[in-house]
């Protein structure tokens, strides 16, 4: 990866570059000034905010509805925002976790029939002294777009394990409240473990069909999240969403379908990328299972996409739906700032590693590093990641290139098939900051 930055990004990184060198190079490329002591600041003044009608697009796709609506309840109708405002303020009742997954995206102006009110209407529930402080950060991204769409996540407990809408009237009441706050739409998780729960390739969409029909009544838009992982925790209504039952049955005889750490502990939140091309899921590969699910969704709700009700589709790519290895699971005892562990010890990942080592002519490289520490180790405490450690050896570079290559190959295949399945629909993915660990840790 460092070699790629040097070759394709023209970054002048030193021979033994660390994460600080990479961040400094990226900051300089973005126009920031970086001093030798690490002090970093913008080289030119931050652009001022445009007039209200020129606000750009941002999608708050992970705000749980109770927190979101309670925070907006206190807002009063405000006056237009001064175009020279330098910062927005945040309500103290909003927790950091409520704001940690804001997705900045390009505003689509197609199919405006579903709740796309004017920019002035989208702001009339906020006072000028209560707007989000983050505007100074995002201002540069908003200048070329006229609107700020806001989406609030619906709780995952509204659909039960039999794919039934639990309480339609409660959903209507919630949507009515959101509509009064001038939100543009809602985020709905479509869980693989619910839709294809019992039998392979038998998809049950009835609960989601009913839910989308109610959302359509309120002329709100929908961002759909296709979740190929388990929830990992109880959601609203005490619902624990696991992988499909037939997958769990397969795992009783073959636990290597899950990511595995060096000690042999399995992470059952999602399937290992090692089976992306292995026909171990009742005759299908992991990639084929994902594609069949996406194609079934598209065939079921294609008309809603064409009408503009469904504005975007987020495709899950790994743990928590994010493009990352499950390297830092709390259930394994990980705590920040531990570096985590490599998740490449299932039979299929090891098979792939062996083939890659044979191709390079070094069969003894077909192993994971034995000095990379444990979940709560620090980089400097390990022989692999410390300054001048094995990560920079011939074997270390081979292993890290292989490990990151598996991730890149997975996202490339899934998104290629998603583009085919959804026939030009807007596709969203979630990329986590933990990808940085590909440079400094598992």
Automatic annotation (TrEMBL):
**GO terms for MF:** beta-amylase activity
Gene Ontology biological process terms from the UniProt entry: polysaccharide catabolic process; regulation of DNA-templated transcription
Which SUPFAM superfamilies does this UniProt record tie to the protein? Answer: (Trans)glycosidases
**Enzyme Commission (EC) number:** 3.2.1.2
Keywords, A to Z, come to: Carbohydrate metabolism, Glycosidase, Hydrolase, Polysaccharide degradation
**Enzyme class, UniProt record, top EC level:** hydrolase
Report the catalytic activity: Hydrolysis of (1->4)-alpha-D-glucosidic linkages in polysaccharides so as to remove successive maltose units from the non-reducing ends of the chains
Residue ranges of domain BES1/BZR1 plant transcription factor N-terminal in the record = 1-125
The family this protein is said to belong to: Belongs to the glycosyl hydrolase 14 family.
The protein depicted here goes by the name Beta-amylase
Provide the species name: Triticum aestivum (Wheat)
């Amino acid at each position: 990866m460092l070699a790629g930055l040097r070759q394709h990004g023209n970054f002048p990184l030193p021979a033994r570059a660390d994460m600080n060198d990479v961040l400094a190079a990226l900051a300089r490329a973005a126009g920031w000034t970086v001093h030798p002591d690490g002090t970093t600041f913008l080289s030119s003044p931050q652009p001022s905010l445009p007039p209200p009608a020129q606000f750009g697009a941002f999608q708050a796709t992970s705000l749980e509805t109770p927190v979101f609506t309670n925070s907006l309840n206190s807002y009063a109708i405000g006056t237009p925002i001064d175009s020279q405002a330098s910062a927005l303020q945040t309500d103290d009742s909003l927790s950091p976790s409520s704001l940690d997954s804001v997705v900045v995206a390009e505003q689509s102006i197609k199919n405006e029939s579903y709740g796309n009110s004017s920019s002035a209407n989208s702001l009339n529930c906020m006072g000028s002294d209560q707007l989000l402080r983050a505007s100074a950060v995002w201002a540069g991204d908003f200048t070329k777009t006229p609107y700020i769409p806001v989406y609030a996540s619906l709780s995952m407990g509204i659909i039960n394990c039999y794919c039934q809408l639990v309480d339609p009237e409660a959903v209507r009441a919630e949507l009515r409240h959101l509509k009064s706050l001038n939100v543009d739409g809602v985020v709905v998780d479509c869980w693989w473990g619910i839709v294809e729960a019992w039998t392979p390739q038998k998809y049950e969409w009835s609960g989601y069909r009913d839910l989308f029909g109610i959302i359509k009544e309120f002329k709100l838009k929908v961002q759909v999240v296709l979740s190929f992982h388990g929830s990992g925790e109880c959601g609203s209504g005490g619902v624990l969403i696991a992988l499909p039952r037939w997958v769990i049955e397969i795992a009783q005889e073959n636990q290597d379908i899950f990511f595995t750490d060096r000690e042999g502990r399995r992470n059952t939140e999602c399937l290992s990328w090692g089976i992306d091309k292995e026909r171990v899921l009742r005759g299908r590969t992991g990639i084929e299972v994902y594609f069949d699910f996406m194609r079934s969704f598209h065939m079921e709700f294609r008309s809603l996409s064409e009408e503009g009700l469904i504005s975007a589709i987020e495709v899950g790519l790994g743990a928590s739906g994010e493009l990352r290895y499950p390297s830092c699971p709390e259930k394994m005892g990980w705590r920040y700032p531990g570096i985590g562990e490599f998740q490449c010890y299932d039979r299929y990942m090891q098979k792939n590693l062996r083939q890659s080592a044979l191709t390079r002519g070094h069969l003894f490289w077909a192993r994971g590093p034995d000095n990379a520490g444990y979940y709560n180790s620090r980089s400097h405490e390990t022989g692999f990641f410390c300054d001048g450690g094995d990560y920079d050896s011939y074997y270390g570079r081979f292993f890290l290139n292989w490990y990151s290559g598996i991730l890149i190959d997975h996202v490339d295949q899934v998104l290629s098939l998603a583009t085919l399945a959804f026939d030009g629909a807007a596709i969203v993915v979630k990329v986590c900051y933990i990808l940085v660990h590909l440079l400094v840790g598992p």
